[in-house]
Recover the amino acids of this structure.
């Protein structure tokens, strides 16, 4: 039984994952019960209301690296300091440097989606514009 340490590790991991499944199934049951109670209460006050018409609100996990509103401010600061157009990747690299975080590929990928969302929201507000395309990537600059 030379592989007993492998089996032991796999059993430990399996036990951990099974515990997570059990925990989340209990949580789903609790939330489903709450949802059923709310649905029944709605039906008491408005029996004709069709609950299927209610849109599901997406659950979003907040970025732990930024305080409320900080991501907008820091992206604008990066664009101001650059004096020119930057790609979303360049914006992310500057943000990571400012925050003192490592410039690993994982961190850049994690921040890039968030930064791109911020850039699009700032563009919709009319604070920034997409500059002349730089090859295949889009660049952004302050108006």
């Amino acid at each position: 039984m030379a592989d007993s340490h492998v089996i032991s590790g796999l059993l430990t991991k399996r036990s951990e994952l099974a515990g997570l499944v059990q925990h989340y199934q209990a949580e789903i049951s609790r939330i489903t019960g709450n949802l059923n109670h709310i649905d029944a209460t709605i039906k008491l006050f408005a029996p004709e209301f069709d609950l299927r018409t209610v849109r599901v609100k997406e659950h979003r996990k907040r970025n732990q690296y930024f305080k409320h509103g900080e991501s907008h401010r820091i992206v604008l600061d990066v664009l101001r300091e650059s004096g020119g157009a930057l790609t979303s990747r360049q914006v992310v690299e500057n943000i990571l440097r400012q925050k003192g975080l490592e410039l690993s590929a994982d961190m850049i990928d994690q921040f890039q989606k968030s930064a791109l969302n911020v850039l699009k929201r700032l563009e919709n507000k009319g604070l920034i514009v997409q500059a002349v395309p730089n090859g295949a990537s889009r660049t952004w600059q302050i108006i």
